[in-house]
# Entry
Amino acid sequence: MTMVKNSLRFLKQCALGAAALTPLAANAADVPAWANDPACQTLTMAAAGGPTPKNPDLMVLRYAGSANFELAYGNTVLLFDAQYEREAYARPIGVKAEQLTKATAVYIGHGHGDHMSEGPQIANQSKAPLFGAALTTETAIKMGLPAAQAKTVKNGDVQKYPGFSVEAILAQHNSRTPEFVKIAGGAWQNLQKATGIGRPEGAPRPTRITGTSDVKVLTEGTYAFLMTFDNGYKFMMLDSSGPITEGERAVMKRIGKVDAASVAYQGYYVPARQIEGTLPLVELFKPDVFIPNHHDETAGSFPDMGTEPLFLAIREKMPAVRSISPLLRAPICINTKTKDIFVGDTWTFPKG
Ligand SMILES: [Zn+2]
# Structure
C-alpha cells in the first residue's frame, strides 16, 4: 500500500497569498491524501510513460534541465521547451529525448537551440502539435516537423485543454549585447578551460539544425505562456528574462497576479546581473510561488547559476513569495483548488 513517509516536505500556501509555512509535516496524517497520487511519487516524466495525476485538481510540474518543464493535468501532458541532449559537462537530465513519446503538445518559448533542439523530434514521436512564434515553427519544419503539426501563435492566442487553457503572450528575450556576449561569454569559456571543465577537444558538434539564431527572436520570437485553470488557478511560464512588454503588461493588468510563475534565470553569467533581468518579471507576475528555469549549466554556453541570491532578492522585495528550486524531474504537485503544494523527491518516496 502506498504510504507517504512522515518526512514529506509539505508546503502550505495560504489562500490569501501570504505564505504561511507549514514546516516538515510532523506525521503522515498532516499530509493530504492527494500527495499520495502516484504522479507525486515518481521522478518519471509523464511524457516518458510515468503516471498522470488522478486527482482532478492536481497539476504536476517537473523541471527537466535547461528551460524544460513538464506540466501534467488530468491526461494532458504539455512540454515547455525541449533541449534534452546536452553536451559535457552539463549534467544529464536523466531522460532521453527518444523516451518522451506521450506529450499532448510541445510549447517552445523561443527558437534558440538551447530551447528547442529536440522539440520537433518529441512532437514527431508524440504526434503532438508544436506551438511557438513564426520563427520557431518555421525552424521546426526545417528540423523535420511535419507542417501540419506546426502551430504558430500570436499574442493573445488561446488553446483549450480539458480543465485549463494556455494563452500566448508576446514577451521579449533578454537583451544581452553582442559585445557583452563576446566578452563575458568568452570569459566563461576561458574559466571552463582553466578549471578543466571545458568542452573536450575534438568532441563532435551536432551537424543538424538545433534552432535559429535570427536576431528577430529577441523581439518577435519569444512568448510567455499563461495557464488558466477552470477553478481560476494561474501559472505563468517564461523562458527568457528580457524587458517587460506591452503584451505582458496588458495581461497582468487584466488578471492582477498569478498563483505560480517560472521565469528564466540565465544569460548574464553572474547572479548580480541576472537578478536585474529576472526580478522585475517576478514583480510583474506577483506569484505566490516562484520556480526558476534555465538556471542549470548548459555545456559551453552557460554556467550553473546559484539560486540563493535571486531568492534572497525576491524575499527582500516580496516577502510573501515562496521561491523553490526542486531537483531535476522531482514532482512539484500543486493542488490548484486549495493551492497547497507538495514537492516530492526520492527521499520522500515510499520504499519498497
Ligand atoms: Zn535564448
